[in-house]
Amino acid sequence: MDIADNDTGLPPGYRILLVEDDALLATVASGQLEAIGCRVVHVSASAEDAIRWIDAGGAVDLVLSDIVMAGMNGVALAVYLGEHHPQVRVLLTTGYGADLLDEQKRDYPVIGKPWRGAEIAAAIRGAVAEPVMRG
Fold first, then answer.
1. What global pTM score does this model have?
2. Domains of the chain and any CATH numbers
3. Per DSSP, which regions of 3-114 are E strands?
4. pLDDT tens track for 59-89
C-alpha cells in the first residue's frame, strides 16, 4: 500500500520549508513530502534564502534542510533558527556517510539520504514529538 493511503501520524497540512541546493532532489523531496500529507510552503536553494524567507514572516512548522551546502550549512541554519525562531522545528538530511550522521545527531535529528515516504514520515513525527529545547 502506498504511504499516501496510510495514516502517517503527521498533523494534517504540516508546513515544511525545504532547504535543498540540488533542484532535482528538491523536486523529488517536495513530491514525497506532499505524498505523506505535508505542505511544502517554500523551497530554498540555500540556508541564507531560507533565513530571508522566515525572517520576512514565512510561516513554517518544520525546516527540512540538507546539511552540506555552499555557503551556510544546514547545521548553522539550525543554530540560527534555534536562536531567532525557537518555535520552528528542524530536521537535517544528508547523503554523506554515517560518521557525519552520528556527529550531527548529537544536537539535531538527522535522516540519511536517500529516504522514502515512510522513513521521512517517521523522522518528521520524531521531530514533532520532541520538545523544542535549543538556543
1. 0.86
2. 12-129 (3.40.50.2300)
3. 15-19, 39-44, 62-66, 89-94, 110-112
4. 999 999 999 899 999 999 999 999 999 999 9
